C-alpha cells in the first residue's frame, strides 16, 4: 500500500431539481441568491461576484457566482444547482469546503427523491518521478503503453452507489498522481454536515482498492 501526501484537491457537486424552476417561480431564484450572500448562514458571496444571465422569461436564465478567489463557483439553472471548489491544500481548506457544502445543501433543501452527482480529485505526490512511474506500471499490460493508469468501479461499505476511480499521472503537480472519483448519493440525508464529513473517508476507502492511501491533510502549506 502506497501512502502519499495530498498536494491539491477539489470537489464538484451537481444537484438536480425535482422539476424545472421557472425564472419567476415564487421568487426561488432571488431567494437563493440572497441566501448565498448571507455571511452568517449562507456562503458569504459578495453581491458583485454574482452574475445573472437571462434570455427568456420562462427557463432562459443562469445565475453564476465566484468565491474563494476564482477557486469556487456556484451555478443555478432551471434544472440544477452546481458548486465546485478547486486548488485546496490543507486540513483547514477541507473544513471550510465541508462547511460551504453543508450550507449549500441547507440552502437548496433538495427533494429526497433526487440524486446528486459528486466528483472529487486529488494530486498526490510520490518521492520521485521514477517511483511514481514504477507504481503506475503495475497497471500496464502492453509494452506499447507509454503512460500507465487505472480505471475501475468499486463498491465500498457504507456507500450505496458505485464509485468510479481514475488514477493517472498528474499534469499539474510534478512526480504526482491525479486521482479522481465520480459517484452519486440520494438527497435524503437528515444531517448534511455529518454526511459530507464522510466524503474524504469514502474517497480513501475507494482508493485503497488500488493499494493506494493518503496521509492526513497538511495543517499548513
Task: Tell me what the structure shows.
- It contains 5 helices and 11 strands.
- The chain has 221 residues and is α+β, with helices and mostly antiparallel strands.
- It has a domain at 2-12 and 111-214.
- Strands 3-4-5-6-2-7-10-9-8 form a 9-stranded antiparallel sheet, with helices on one face. It has a two-stranded parallel sheet with strand order 1-11.
- A hairpin with a 6-residue loop joins strand 9 (163-169) and strand 10 (176-186).
- The model has no long low-confidence stretch (mean pLDDT 94).
Strand order of the largest sheet: 3-4-5-6-2-7-10-9-8
Number of strands: 11
Strand content: 25-35%
Residue stretches low in confidence (pLDDT < 50, at least 5 long) are: none
Residues in helix, %: 10-25%
State the end-to-end distance: 25 Å
What is the H/E order? EEHEEEEHEHEEEHHE
**Structural class given helices, strands, pairing?**
alpha+beta
Number of helices: 5
Apparent shape: elongated
Largest sheet: 9 strands, antiparallel
Q: Rg to the nearest angstrom?
A: 19 Å
Mean pLDDT: 94
Amino acid at each position: 500500500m502506497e501512502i502519499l501526501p495530498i498536494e491539491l484537491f477539489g470537489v464538484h457537486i451537481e444537484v438536480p431539481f425535482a422539476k424545472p424552476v421557472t425564472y419567476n417561480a415564487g421568487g426561488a431564484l432571488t431567494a437563493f441568491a440572497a441566501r448565498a450572500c448571507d455571511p452568517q448562514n449562507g456562503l458569504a458571496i459578495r453581491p458583485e461576484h454574482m452574475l445573472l444571465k437571462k434570455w427568456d422569461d420562462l427557463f432562459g436564465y443562469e445565475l453564476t457566482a465566484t468565491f474563494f478567489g476564482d477557486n469556487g463557483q456556484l451555478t443555478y439553472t432551471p434544472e440544477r444547482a452546481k458548486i465546485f471548489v478547486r486548488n485546496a491544500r490543507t486540513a483547514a481548506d477541507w473544513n471550510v469546503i465541508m462547511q460551504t457544502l453543508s450550507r449549500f445543501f441547507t440552502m437548496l433543501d433538495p427533494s429526497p427523491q433526487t440524486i446528486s452527482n459528486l466528483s472529487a480529485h486529488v494530486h498526490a505526490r510520490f518521492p520521485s518521478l521514477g517511483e511514481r512511474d514504477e507504481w503506475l506500471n503495475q497497471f500496464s499490460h502492453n509494452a506499447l503503453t507509454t503512460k500507465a493508469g487505472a480505471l475501475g468501479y468499486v463498491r465500498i461499505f457504507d456507500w450505496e452507489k458505485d464509485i468510479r476511480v481514475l488514477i493517472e499521472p498528474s499534469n499539474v503537480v510534478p512526480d504526482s498522481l491525479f486521482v479522481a472519483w465520480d459517484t452519486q448519493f440520494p438527497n435524503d440525508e437528515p444531517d448534511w454536515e455529518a454526511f459530507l464529513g464522510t466524503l474524504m473517508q469514502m474517497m480513501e476507502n475507494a482508493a485503497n482498492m488500488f493499494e493506494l492511501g493518503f496521509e492526513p491533510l497538511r495543517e499548513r502549506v
